[in-house]
Design goal:
Blueprint: H1 4-22, H2 26-35, H3 44-56, H4 58-66, H5 78-93, H6 99-113, H7 118-133, H8 135-144
Length: 146
């Protein structure tokens, strides 16, 4: 059984995908998701944070992703792009969330929604971002495991 926060990420992938593909107004997409009851068993506050926070911080998120993706961010598969944006957002904005949790959740999203093997691509990119942004946390984790 998935946690309410995991479900929030899953629905956020779908909502961000729709936003990326249609350019629709965010509140209009949120309204549709509410009406279709897709936010059932979802931590709504976290869904809202991701769904509005990612577009709000899109410049910084895409700039970070651009350093590590093998093509322009806009050319990345739209499902993978939505997942990468969620992972990058969490690594950049949610320092309270362990980087391993961010990576594991993103890998699971890619396995659930992405093409075969996309979880390896997502993992590779987010791991490199984590090495850069969360270096202190990773170093502390490594020295604590000795």
């Amino acid at each position: 059984m998935s946690s309410a926060r995991t479900n929030a990420r899953r629905v956020a992938v779908q909502a961000l995908y729709q936003w990326q593909m249609t350019g629709q107004n965010l509140s209009e997409i949120e309204r549709q998701f509410l009406e279709e009851e897709r936010l059932k068993d979802v931590q709504k506050s976290y869904f809202v944070e991701l769904f509005y926070g990612i577009p709000k911080n899109l410049g910084a998120i895409d700039e970070t992703l651009a350093e590590f993706v093998d093509r322009p961010v806009d050319m990345v598969d739209p499902v993978e792009r939505a997942i990468l944006r969620i992972g990058a957002y969490e690594l950049l904005q949610r320092l309270d969330m362990p980087y391993r949790v961010v990576l594991n959740e993103s890998i699971n999203l890619a396995k659930h929604f992405g093409a075969d093997g996309s979880h390896k691509y997502v993992n590779g990119i987010l791991d490199k971002i984590a090495q850069q942004i969360r270096a202190v946390e990773i170093k502390a984790k490594l020295s604590g495991n000795k």
